[in-house]
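Progress note, project year one: complex with pyridoxal-5'-phosphate.
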Amino acid sequence: MARVYNFSAGPSMLPESVLNRAAEEMLDYQGSGQSVMEMSHRSKVYEPIIFGAMDLFREILGVPDNYKILFLQGGASTQFAAIPLNFMNGSGKADYILSGQFSTKAWEEARKYGVANAVASSKEDKYTHIPDHDPSMYTPDADYFYICYNNTIYGTRFTDATLPKTGNVPLFADVSSCFLSEPMDVSQYGLIYGGAQKNIAPAGLTVVIVREDLLGKARDITPTMLNYAIMAEKDSMYNTPPCYSIYMCKLVLEWIKSIGGLEAMKLRNEKKAGLLYEYLDKSELFIAPVLPRDRSMMNVVFKTADEELNKKFIAEAAAAGFVNLKGHRIAGGMRASIYNAMPIEGVEKLVQFMEDFEKKNK
Ligand SMILES: *Cc1c(COP(=O)(O)O)cnc(C)c1O
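Model obtained:
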């Protein structure tokens, strides 16, 4: 069967050239006579894979020298607990902006460990925008300030204009669904992190980038496996890391570099999102519920006014090779996740399909 255009929110598409390379190297990685899946993570042949991936990550994202890059497991959701365990140990307070499901889950987890303040929420508006907030609402002595930068389910995202200006309180961001989609000034953050399965690699790898001076303050009860300082000290190999996912991450980073790095990636992604939103804005059938200021470049949420028509659209799109367009079960409607690996032509063809669908169903 021909490859489909896969609009899944995660795990999601990987670049075809990366999959081909992995296939070529599957049985014999660079003359080692082994698959990467079969190697010891402490072998001479594997070391350049994990350290090469970390170095490339640093280079491509421009991660400053005083930040550690950790390759962990447990997904983004495990970090919801690891973050308060590692950092909510000064005043025991932290601020959270509730902009959707994942920041709310992170906040609920943090409340088990200390005073987690919900600074602002857009729940009442079904998370169709980033909630308003200003520094008078922040906790001055918070141990950190937490946001989810790109809200995968609701299709919103922070921008420079809406990003909290937290002064001396380190800003932490879940960037799972926008990691490496555009350049980012890492120095504005105390910590950023994300599960790899949205934009970087197959599931299994979670990347945490943390400012060194924040480490070493974990609570005594912190499980060793969740202690970022220990993971940093052990080069993310306290135990067996997600070896194959890290290898795939390295191939994806090489691919990003080959097409011109994050500036080029941003232009591609802006073009794709622009095509979709431009059509949605003029469509008389489809509605884009998100406040234009806060629209995600990665997850484009839309619907029709009629639930039956949504179902029909999703089914007909899938039959035509545009799969996984169903919205998250808590949000309904449709969502096109157009991460880095989605080619521009995939979005052009989807828009064409939507135009045809609109003509037939007006
Ligand atoms: C997918 C996602 C998560 C959850 O990721 P897991 O790796 O499944 O735990 C958390 N935050 C955001 C922004 C996500 O997109």
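The chain has a mean pLDDT of 97.
The longest helix spans residues 261-282.
No further modelling is planned for this target in the current period.
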